[in-house]
């Protein structure tokens, strides 16, 4: 992990850009925090520059709770090399949507599974590097989309102790099977009236998660209109699960 | 409203039993509260004596927030005269369930609609009496089951400004139509793994509510296993909507 820049936000949060090999990322650390500081991995749909305003807002909320937060660019997004397979799948998806045809399992698999296959080990490598930093070392959370990445990571990475997942469309059938093996506490956010989202698929995935503690928090407001109180509830979830050594 | 007994709970909450005509009820008021004090109507499935431990726990939580809380016995429950129509519908329901037959709309209508028709004006009369008491007069909330009663009340009674509804089975078709006319903020609790509950019916009803602000909070734990954090989220909902004159 190689830090490339550092700046201090007005609330005392330190924001550091880094690269991990070829992967760009950002780490936010609170002005004051317990040591070791728990860290939340901030998931997103790809495109750090576009997502930055929403990511920094989520990082500030985490910092206010005494948590560090970190994110990395997704494979094929931002300045990272594009994937021919994914580009072709995305073209097929757009063609199906434009023609009003069903989005087949084949398209979803080609669009999402290679992304998950590549992104999950990258998140794990990021976690290795983060936990090697001085001061970082508490329980780890994952927060955000892509929900298929969050699901795989929750199964594959035992250091992730709790996850806030954003329900979104296009979940491969294989991920529903993996969801049954998730056992960590989950807090799933669903925007009920999100036109671009397949609500039934989100409900099916929530049902599939094997976790004994799982909460579905569904709200109005459209894709990006998660209400403040839902953000507060997600923050309370991490407060319960990432403080006191992760004991809920 | 005629008070029949009064006792002081250890947290300073004053519990007063009353009768309103033939209807028994209980009023809990906080040790200290702003005047006028907002009041939450505590819904339940009927049977004040059986429900008392859970009702008093909810009333204590409301009191800790500075809210009064009140409940009345449902028509046909506890010591109130039974209804031949409802008893017959309940017998038909048990017969259908025992035989593994579908519960028809006819049975649900006969079981629930007369109860709603009678209970809603009784809640309104209770509210008239409560708001005539010295000190009570803030915004009004409704909390609990029967969800069909809560739905009708939310449409019929403009003094109810926000409602926490417990999703439960057996909602008449007519109530789904009424749900479209609900406009107040709603917080709907659903126990995802409640075997006695029709989950799809609960999701359909949540979808039908016309409210611009509505939250579905679904959790594991079975029928009576609402987790503490879900109770806290419901309390936070009333905090937002029943304080500061009900402005959210």
Automatic annotation (TrEMBL), chains A, B:
<dbReference type="InterPro" id="IPR029058">
    <property type="entry name" value="AB_hydrolase_fold"/>
</dbReference>
<protein>
    <submittedName>
        <fullName>Alpha/beta hydrolase</fullName>
    </submittedName>
</protein>
<keyword id="KW-0378">Hydrolase</keyword>
<dbReference type="GO" id="GO:0016787">
    <property type="term" value="F:hydrolase activity"/>
</dbReference>
């Amino acid at each position: 992990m190689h830090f490339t820049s550092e700046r201090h936000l007005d609330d005392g949060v330190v924001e550091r850009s880094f690269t991990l090999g070829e992967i760009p990322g950002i780490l936010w650390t609170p002005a004051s925090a317990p040591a070791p500081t728990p860290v939340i991995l901030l998931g997103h749909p790809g495109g750090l520059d576009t997502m930055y305003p929403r990511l920094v807002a989520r990082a500030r909320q985490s910092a206010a709770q005494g948590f560090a937060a970190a994110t990395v660019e997704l494979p094929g997004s931002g300045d990272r090399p594009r994937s021919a397979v994914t580009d072709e799948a995305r073209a097929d998806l757009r063609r199906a949507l434009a023609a009003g045809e069903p989005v087949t399992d084949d398209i979803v698999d080609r669009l999402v599974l290679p992304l998950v296959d590549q992104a999950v080990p990258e998140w794990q490598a990021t976690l290795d590097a983060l936990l090697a930093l001085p001061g970082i070392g508490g329980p780890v959370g994952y927060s955000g989309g892509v929900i298929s990445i969050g699901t795989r990571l929750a199964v594959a990475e035992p250091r992730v102790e709790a996850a806030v997942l954003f329900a979104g469309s296009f979940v491969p059938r294989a991920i529903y099977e993996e969801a049954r093996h998730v056992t960590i506490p989950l807090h799933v956010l669903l925007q009920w009236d999100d036109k671009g989202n397949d609500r039934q698929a989100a409900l099916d995935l929530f049902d599939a998660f094997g976790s004994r503690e799982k909460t579905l928090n569904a709200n109005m407001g459209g894709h990006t209109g998660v209400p403040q109180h839902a953000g507060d509830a997600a923050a309370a979830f991490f407060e319960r699960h990432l403080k006191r050594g992760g004991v809920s």
